[in-house]
Design brief:
- By secondary structure, the chain is mainly β.
- The chain has a single domain, classed as Tachylectin-2, Chain A, CATH 2.115.10.
- The chain is built from one helix and 21 strands.
- The structure holds beta-L-arabinofuranose (FUB).
- Beta-L-arabinofuranose binds next to β1 and β15.
Amino acid sequence: MEGRRMRYTLISLPIASLFFSAPPCGAAPLKNNEPNPVPVEKQALTSSIYIADPSAHAFGGEIYIYPSHDIENDIPPDNEGSSFDMKDYHVFSLKDFSTPLVDRGEALNIKDVPWAGKQMWAPDAAFKNGNYYLFFPAKDKAGIFRIGVAVSASPAGPFKARPEPIKGSYSIDPCAFIDDDGSAYLVFGGLWGGQLQRWRTGEYKEIDRFPDGKEPALGPRIARLREDLLEFQGPDKEIAILNEDGSPLRADQHSRRFFEAVWMHKYQGKYYLSYSTGDTHKLVYATGDSPFGPFTYRGLLLRPVVGWTTHHSIVEFEGAWYLFYHDASLSGGYDNLRCVKYAKLEMQPDGSIKTITP
Ligand code: FUB
């Protein structure tokens, strides 16, 4: 297996350097509110801090974005994603697309999460029963990724974390999906640094066990959430993703198999599951008739962006659908220093989504 973060360092930085004047190693410092000479920054929703993994929701007539907060550090890139050493979350809001993104401040800090050891990765949020819930992955004190939940009366936080992670939770990248009937689900999982391949036996084993190429790829996981959204209602299940001929996606189908960054939304009665293919750097999507699947692969959603990771959310706002995603253009191509952008989705009459070129 090639090094996850090294791979981008070796291949993508020279590509990025064709477009940007940033140095090829060591992150260019970003000072708050200073203009950045990188032209593509104009497309980033904010340059005040580095943010990534944007989970966007329409709450109370505005778009709220719940991203990871990327920070500079000296940790070398590795397969575990160790240089993604985030320590807090900021919430952002957007009144509409003609006004600037507003940083609503720090919403949760790792020091206020009793169980968390390090690496606050991609979060998501949900609204139910008058409360806002922030779902977030972090490594516990033993170095195992778990998913926690924190609660607030305001979409902007601050959020109060529960003292323990969700019982039975593991891996990364939670997406909270609330169906039309109010049923709530948490979809999650991620390979490599996200540790999903270490749970093949149902318990954590510090050994990476990937399926052989011709075997079915590992799928994301889904668990129904309790009415209060604080715990799983029962054990999680693996979501099956199928090729058009009904066969399960194989582990060697790197251009379409699930890797991380799963997102679920519903459009015209169909469930859409979109995710990153990881080492092929694509966002793709599949559709199905139940949140539990099976889902059938439908196509490419977003072509590769600048940077190794790609991660997104899909939200309906004022009658249109939008993709929020990140890339590493603002930092000149540093994988762990990313910025957030958006694009309008073009839905086709057959329910397919027109591929977006970043
Ligand atoms: O931001 C840290 C990790 O990088 C996320 O959890 C992944 O989805 C990838 O974007």
